[in-house]
Write a structure and sequence with these properties.
By secondary structure, the protein is an alpha/beta fold. It has 2 domains: about 180 residues, Aldolase class I (TIM Barrel); about 70 residues, Non-ribosomal Peptide Synthetase Peptidyl Carrier Protein, Chain A, CATH 1.10.1200. It contains 11 helices and 5 strands.
C-alpha cells in the first residue's frame, strides 16, 4: 500500500489534504500508524515532497515519521508543492533524507526520464531505489530499460515510431477492455499525445488523436505514419505531465500557524484525490 502525501493540486490542499498533511507531523504519524496496523503483513510505503514551499520544508520530519511508524520504505519527490513539476528536482535533498532515515529504504523521485538517470540519482544521493513518475508517460519501455541497467546490461535501443504506435494501440485496447471503448477513448487521448510527443509531425498527429472515438479510428491513424521513423534523440526528455509553472499553495485558513494539530483533513480533501 502506497500512501501519497505529495499531491499539490489546489482542490486537495485547500482542504488540508495531499502535500499539506506533512506540515502536521502528528497528523501524518496517526495516519501512517493506522495504515500500518490495518495492513498487517502488507507493506506500507509513503511518498511526500520537500515541503509546501522553501519556507516550509517537511521532508526530514516526514521521513522520520515513516521510519518510526513502521513503513517498509519512504519516497521523496524532490520538489516542493509550490514547484508543482517545474524546474529541476533537488536530488541533494534525497541524499540528505538518506542521512536521516537509515533503517528503511529511501527511494528518490524526480527527473527520471531515462534509465541512466536512475543510476545517476542513486550514485549521487545514496538512495536505495527510484520511483518513476512522468518519465514513463508514453514511454512504458522505460521500465524494461531500468531492469536492464539495474542488472548491469546496457539499455536497448529506443523503439522506432512503428513500435511506439504498436505499444500505444495495445495500451488503448487494454484500457477499453477495462472501462469500455467509448470512455476509454476519451480517457486515452492525453496518453496518445504523450506517446507521439517529440516525433516529426507529431503535433498534427496529436491533434487528430484528440478526436478519435474508437479503436478502429486510432488504428487507422497508426497505419498512416511511417513506422521506420527513428525515435528522436531528445524525445525521452520532453516534459510530460499535467502542470507547468509554479504556484502559491492554497491551504485552509490558518493552516501554517501550528504544526501540532492532528485533526484529519475534511472529506472534501479525500473527494478530490489526484496524483502527486
Amino acid at each position: 500500500i502506497d500512501l501519497n502525501f505529495g499531491c499539490p493540486v489546489r482542490k486537495v490542499t485547500r482542504h488540508g489534504g495531499g502535500a499539506a498533511i506533512p506540515w502536521k507531523p502528528r497528523l501524518l504519524a496517526s495516519i501512517v500508524r493506522a495504515a500500518v496496523r490495518a495492513a498487517g503483513a502488507v507493506p506500507v510505503t509513503i511518498k511526500f515532497r520537500l515541503g509546501i514551499d522553501d519556507a516550509h520544508l517537511t521532508f526530514i520530519d516526514a521521513g522520520r515519521v515513516g521510519q518510526e511508524e513502521g513503513c517498509a520504505a519512504v519516497a521523496l519527490h524532490a520538489r516542493t508543492a509550490a514547484q508543482l513539476y517545474d524546474g529541476a528536482a533537488r536530488w541533494t535533498a534525497i541524499g540528505e533524507l538518506k542521512q536521516h532515515v537509515q533503517r528503511i529504504p529511501v527511494l528518490g523521485n524526480g527527473d527520471i526520464w531515462e534509465a541512466e538517470d536512475a543510476l545517476r540519482m542513486m550514485r549521487a544521493t545514496g538512495c536505495d531505489g527510484v520511483v518513476v513518475g512522468r518519465g514513463c508517460l508514453g514511454r512504458p519501455w522505460l521500465f524494461r530499460d531500468l531492469a536492464d541497467v539495474f542488472d548491469g546490461r546496457a539499455p536497448q535501443n529506443p523503439p522506432n515510431l512503428g513500435d511506439v504506435v504498436h505499444a500505444m494501440l495495445r495500451h488503448a485496447w487494454l484500457l477499453a477492455q477495462w472501462m469500455g471503448e467509448a470512455p476509454a477513448m476519451r480517457a486515452f487521448r492525453r496518453q496518445a499525445g504523450w506517446y507521439t510527443k517529440g516525433f516529426r509531425g507529431s503535433a498534427r498527429l496529436r491533434d487528430r488523436l484528440m478526436h478519435v472515438e474508437s479503436l478502429v479510428e486510432m488504428e487507422e491513424l497508426g497505419l498512416a505514419i511511417d513506422p521506420a521513423e527513428p525515435f528522436p534523440p531528445d524525445a525521452m526528455r520532453v516534459s510530460r505531465g499535467k502542470y507547468g509553472g509554479t504556484q502559491t499553495v492554497t491551504l485552509p485558513h490558518g493552516y501554517l500557524d501550528s504544526r501540532d494539530d492532528d485533526a484529519p483533513p475534511t472529506q472534501e480533501a479525500e473527494a478530490g484525490l489526484s496524483g502527486g
